[in-house]
Model the fold of this input.
Amino acid sequence: MLKKSLELLRLEAAETGANTLKRSLNGFSLIAIGIGVIIGAGLFSLTGIAAANNAGPAVTLSFLVAAVGCAFSALCYAEFASMVPVAGSAYTYSYATMGELFAWIIGWDLILEYSVGAATVAISWSQYLVRFLSKYNLHIPAQLVMSPFETATLADGSVVSGFVNVPAMLIVLAITGIIIRGTQGSAWFNALVVSLKVLVVLVFIALGWQYIDPANYQPYIPQNTGTFGEFGWSGILRGAGVVFFVFIGFDIVATMAQETKNPQKNMPIGIIGSLLVCTVLFMLFGHVMTGLANYTEFKNSAAPVAIAIEKTPYAWLSSAIILAILIGYTSVILVDLMGQSRVFFSMSKDGLLPKVFSRVHPTFRTPLQSNLLLGLFISLFAGFVPIDVVGEMTSIGTLLAFVMVCLGVLIMRKKEPNAPRGFRTPWVPVVPILGILTCVLMMVSLPADTWIRLFVWLAIGLAIYYGYGKKHSKLGQEQRAGAAPLPAE
Done:
């Protein structure tokens, strides 16, 4: 239950030297990073799955419920990010408020969140690539674009099982190479593809609106099947839990605090700004998509936009949008991988993971070893796990982190009421409490097997903590030695 003091965290944030991350991001860069990861897998893939399996055309309401829950959490994140501008996001915040064990749980949870988030995007990227190449009579064997747990029906009627999703693995490894080269270069690359993605969403909304078939909205909220989460109002709620995945962008913005210029000012701008922009776009996008095609057509498809576009006369638009989505997806993978490696970096600096993960490359000033290991791990995840499994795992991991951050704001307002805050969450304790309740409600709505996977992952993490992290914790070693805590090396 050892806690880091705000003074110690601020000393860490002020560190300079060869083994520190380079500050190169401004407010615009952070908003672009947030939008870059928010507009991606959830919008272009999980939207169709949530509509087909849970909410029907009312998936737009699922987006609204998820966005409200996100808004409460985003305000809490913004306060913490302005108080403690250190890499690590919710992991660091939990260390200051609830102690080392809770910090480990959240850090381990964030690793899961970002791992499966990047894997989800990579899998959807692979499916869009197959669709794009098929338009030019280029075909990848079905066995090489699916996990071993999936099957596909070929044109001749035969059914084949997947072996490994090769394109999904390759794109993860390629993006890993980009982020190793440096944060500033990654930010420029991200800004370029984010601009393209926003343009794609706006074009889809503008051109698709005129071809909406009102019959596709009947019924707007399909009748519940008798099972919780399968349509009806419970389906909207479960749909919100599924599409909540799309809003993790502002969460990842918080991991970049130690690479941000003037983080007290720019972190709240990046977190709240990216959430506001994307919420409006998501609801309009979901409305157009379910208006162009009946929600039942999106069943088991990770490429619902391609299905919707086929309902319009713009044949050229289908190819253009799929190509733009492919390019845009790379920014989602990039930001997920960046965020995850920064959590690893922070945990390693605290001694909870081996030192190799906090070593910074002397030229690129990025955590090279973390990037390499995580890139390899996520590529294997993307190659061998189905998209519906990884999507739900990302949602529950994100929600748990949000709960802890909202709780942390309540604790810090009690413990450190006069601490400097570049941004203050309004209406405390109402906003944090509503954030906790909303996130817990969406967590409860997720399937039982998703909870089981979360508990298994956390059990593995606790075994590592008690086997390695607790013994090597710098804070713990300093306390046992009777020394005053010092900033991590």
Remarks:
- The domain at 6-12+21-474 is CATH 1.20.1740.10 (Amino acid/polyamine transporter I).
